[in-house]
Amino acid sequence: MHPEILSLSLFMFVTSCSPGPNNVVASHSGFNHGLKKSIPLMLGVIFGFTTMLAIVNFGLINVFNIYPIIQKVLIGTGTIFLIYLAYKISFSKSSDKKDNLEPVSFIETFLYQFLNPKGLIVAVIAVSTYTESGINFMSYSLWMLGVAFLFAIISIIFWTILGKFMRKFATNEKFIKWFNYVMSTLLISCIATFYY
Description:
Layout lengths: L4 H13 L3 H17 L1 H28 L1 H23 L15 H7 L4 H14 L6 H30 L6 H21 L3
Helix pairs in contact: 1-7, 2-3, 2-7, 2-8, 3-4, 3-5, 3-6, 3-7, 4-8
């Protein structure tokens, strides 16, 4: 067992469950498309984040240490994508409309994890803090990945259900429009936290 399992669990709980790009998009999807149509998005986040964390853990962290500009470029690219996504969310229509923004697919969400600024920052901090080279490297790495996987599941399901729950209050098009504006604003707010 990881000697800092409580600290690791708390870290993953806070970073996974606090508002961030994945959680905001999950709530938006739950609200506009429902739980069933949001499953590909949820699976993309769960498996995408865990895969990205594993890649950082098993080698990319060394590349970031040697060439920190690569991490900055990834965060910058992710930021541009989030601004675009916030724009799309702001102007998405009710799910009753044909021109509605389609639910995000598994592959889109999976690949986005490699550009997600919050996810990259969390991965670098987690690997730097909760793994160590030497005899315990593999054991600590597997514990970290397992805990991250667990909290990714808990978090993304919670936020999607929260969005679905909020739909009960959507009695008119104006409410839906304002909900989408709020989600878009939260997404932009997430971006601001990456740079201070």
